[in-house]
Amino acid sequence: MRTPRLRAQPRGPSVTVASMAVFRSGLLVLTTPLASLAPRLAPILTSAARLVNHTLYVHLQPGMSLEDPAQPPSSPVQATFEVLDFITHLYAGADVHRHLDVRILLTNIRTKSTFLPPLPTSVQNLAHPPEVVLTDFQTLDGSQYNPVKEQLVRYATSCYSCCPRLASVLLYPDYGIGEVPMESLDVPLPSTIRPASPVARSPKQPVRGYYRGAVGGTFDRLHNAHKVLLSIACILAQEQLVVGVADKDLLKSKLLPELLQPYTERVEHLSEFLVDIKPSLTFDVIPLLDPYGPAGSDPSLEFLVVSEETYRGGMAVNRFRLENDLEELALYQIQLLKDVKHTENEEDKVSSSSFRQRMLGNLLRPPYERPELPTCLYVIGLTGISGSGKSSIAQRLKGLGAFVIDSDHLGHRAYAPGGPAYQPVVEAFGTDILHKDGIINRKVLGSRVFGNKKQLKILTDIMWPIIAKLAREEMDRALPCPMWDCLLTLGLCCRVCVIDAAVLLEAGWQNLVHEVWTVVIPETEAVRRIVERDGLSEAAAQSRLQSQMSGQQLVEQSHVVLSTLWEPHITQRQVEKAWALLQKRIPKSHQALD
């Protein structure tokens, strides 16, 4: 017999997706059998994303009808490998809707086990109580049939804590011109979970449950690939899940570690997600300080969930356990999620590294209010560790129209005979710092203050205020043309001024700027560049870096972060992005002149 097919349903006349309000949080109840649901998932998520703009909870209840007079109970869903694959498929599909925090609720998904607790009879609290409940369940006439919606609301509120005035919507997604199978075609989803032998693996095979297990990761900016890893671990665990969160030495090799969320922030987001999706578990979230973590030493653990990337690490954990007379852990390997939107210098998988790269050039915190600065200037303070490529960024900004003030050049002017710092420096450090022609020998002066905090403070107390004064004078010269005065009076333009200064924050010059922009680079790359550029030894280059604020310290006080780690055209693209965003946020009185 021919499989029945469902054509795209017309929407009811009274309610359309376009006319609905946007809700901050929602609950999506999926009732279609999984094999039939998979090909429809993309348009369903698209419809849901038009209604919900922050948190979307998903509840799986395949086969449930909302047209029966009796309220349907929340019944357990057998955890099979098909269910695990569907969860991966759903999170992968949700990744195109990056504004949505999707969370698949797991309380009713049950593994094959003799020690399972009964389904909870009380309502499950959620961190973001849904304001609307949505479903893929459809009525024959394609309308927003009130009794069905009322049944949907009753079902949702019997399972979860929802907002008092819970709205409800029957989704009728646009499935396109073609037809969508109404019944399963028995085409399994791609296999995304690979258990280690001897665990069986077929779509309908029930998944075994364990008392205790573990999973680990950095969990920076919790994304959908993390959620797959955590969700599989939560389904397998019946009592306790140990979650290791990478910290300290394990973060050093990460790309753009300066932009990693602090450990406490990562744990906070992770803990909220875990308690939301399966509150019956006990979660032990701990810092992961070595590659093995508790998985290598805890005899009570039974399984470990890893990704394709960390599978070898999981094998190493098992070898370590065997060496210490502990039983091996059952390994479950999760397939990486592909990132269809990655750019040329990003990984092709969904990863926190790519998310951090996309932060480059973005505004990370509100600009400083600087009413004491001329309204005709919008001032950027550009800083970075030695070797970061800060000066090259300054030149790129100059090419886009910025007026650049080089603090090193100001320092040279200040040191020159007759300059404002010449006599105070000679009086403080003696005439033996002078060349025969009377010019200050900066190498001799540098050796005098390097490693001597007291002497260095004497020098900086002289130099920093003088350079700041010279920078203010340069800012006054940024708009010398009388035509600018006329335009400024009309509020039609403003000049972006960039102060290029390695010691911007140490010197306290942030009071001269609206925004601090920092250029970051791995320390190993900075050392390589310093050695190549200045002819120093690696030890001398490292000493120079250690005498400066670290990239991490600079970023903590920065508004925009850039990096010169990649090819020059990638750097140029970053700078152009940062410049374009800057033009959009500069107040009207600060808008740049075309």
From TrEMBL:
Signal peptide (residue range): none
Pathway: Cofactor biosynthesis; coenzyme A biosynthesis; CoA from (R)-pantothenate: step 4/5; Cofactor biosynthesis; coenzyme A biosynthesis; CoA from (R)-pantothenate: step 5/5
GO biological process: coenzyme A biosynthetic process
UniProt domain Cytidyltransferase-like: residue ranges: 215-358
EC number(s) stated in the UniProt entry for this protein: 2.7.1.24, 2.7.7.3
GO MF term list: ATP binding; dephospho-CoA kinase activity; pantetheine-phosphate adenylyltransferase activity
Compartments, as annotated in UniProt: Cytoplasm; Mitochondrion matrix
Residue runs in coiled coils: none
Alphabetized Pfam families for the sequence: CoaE, CTP_transf_like
Broadest EC class assigned to this enzyme: transferase
Main localization, broad class: cytoplasm
Source organism, top-level taxon: Eukaryota
GO cellular component: mitochondrial matrix; mitochondrial outer membrane
Reaction it catalyzes: 3'-dephospho-CoA + ATP = ADP + CoA + H(+); (R)-4'-phosphopantetheine + ATP + H(+) = 3'-dephospho-CoA + diphosphate
Keywords: ATP-binding, Coenzyme A biosynthesis, Cytoplasm, Kinase, Mitochondrion, Multifunctional enzyme, Nucleotide-binding, Nucleotidyltransferase, Phosphoprotein, Transferase
UniProt keyword annotation of Transferase present: yes
Assembly and interaction partners: Monomer.
Protein family membership: In the central section; belongs to the eukaryotic CoaD family.
Biological function: Bifunctional enzyme that catalyzes the fourth and fifth sequential steps of CoA biosynthetic pathway. The fourth reaction is catalyzed by the phosphopantetheine adenylyltransferase, coded by the coaD domain; the fifth reaction is catalyzed by the dephospho-CoA kinase, coded by the coaE domain. May act as a point of CoA biosynthesis regulation.
Record-given protein name: Bifunctional coenzyme A synthase
Organism: Rhinopithecus bieti
